[in-house]
Automatic annotation (TrEMBL):
Protein name as annotated: GATA-type domain-containing protein
N-terminal signal peptide: none
Positions with biased composition (Basic and acidic residues): 43-56
Region: Disordered, residue numbers: 43-73, 97-201, 274-346, 358-378
Ranges of compositional bias, category Low complexity: 99-141, 188-201, 321-342
Native source organism of the sequence: Chlorella sorokiniana (Freshwater green alga)
Amino acid sequence: METSGHRWRRHPVTKEQLCEACRTYHDKNRGQLPDERLLKQRERRAAEAGKQRRCLECGADSPGNGKRPDWRRHPVTGEEWLCRKCCDRIDRQLRKQRAQQAQQGQEPPSEAQQQPQPQQQQQAQQAQQAQQAQQTQQPAERPGLGAPSRNRKRARNQQQAADSEQAARPVKQGRQQQPLQLLPPSPNHLQQQQQQQQQQQAPAAAEWQGLVVLLQQAAAGVPAAAAMGLSPELVQAFSALPPPDVAQVGHLRSLLQRCEYLELVQAIEAALAQQPPHQQPPPPPQQQSDSDLPPTELVQSGVGAERGSQQVPEVTSGLRATAAAAQQAQQTQQQQQQAQHHPQQHEETMVIDLLDSDDEAADSGPAGPPAPHLAQAPAAAAAAAAAAAAAVQEHPAEAAAPPLAEEQDLFELLHQATGVEEAAAAGLTPELAAAFVMLPSLDERREAYLRRLLLLGCYSAAVTAMRAALRLVGFSLQKAS
């Protein structure tokens, strides 16, 4: 059969020439070729289609030759039918026109382009005739009586809507700019806030009350604190102040725990001085007469020093001027109490460490109060003064001879201590004292330390220090004997 523009193809087996329709049929039907009936039907349909269809532009009865020889529609109007050549020509004209409009900035088309094609001109004429016929059939509408009223009502409604929108615009803008006003808090919310504040303030108030209680106990029961000026009246005046912050309370508590009473008193006095005059607590009440005060208060207030100076001369030394020595004496008492619980394990180690620390301090420079202040032992003097004042009331005749005096030499103190039962029980024998006396020399710090132990009655620690000193020089009691 004729290809009518189709491309010839060969049979894959016999290599005979086949039209494209037969080759497509062969591929779709597993290698079979169309029979004569199908071929005649295809030719008849092609002839009928060719007779019915013609090109709108050139009037051809066939679509033409090429890769796609089929009828096409108009690319703009969609009219039927166009051959391949006419359709391609119209496409090229449209592309050229679009390119020119893009280059000239959407300028109107040229006269040649403005001339409509015959088919388009015919369609435009038909549309114009149909519109004229419709206008002749439908008479012009005449405005009735209700038309002006409806127009006025519509215009009035539109004007009212515009006015209302313009009036509501500032209100809407003001609402957008103004922040939202919250409702007042409920009573439950206020109560919860108060409870939270109380819970936050509770620890600080508890620490403040605990510090006041500790200060009262120290002022009433610690002689060294009373000697530094920590009196119950001062504590009472300090407790009347508003509670300080947590950091200041912790600082005062640390000073109290380290037995730094002088710095503690200075901090309390500074806090009292910082308060305005109208907020300062009233001055403490006037003290009683000297005759009504007990002996311990006489010693702490300094009044009993004049009375005791005639009977106990060593108590008249200034107590406030030796604050550091009093603190060291209290620390020594604590060490003695610890040593009494574990005498065999800790005494020698403690004393040797103390002696080594004294040597390091002497090498590096003065790191503490000088030897005369260490020898005074004010805490022991305060305790001795209290005991002496009590003994004056009971036995006035026996109060003039204290067992150990500060003015005595170290060797005299050792000689007197050998006759004390507590010293003998601790191991301070005459042989040990004689061996210690035979040492070539003893520096001032060690001598002051040993003198302080003897004055405080720490005989066990004194014996340990003496034995450690003898061991350091390689001396033994056998050599002394």
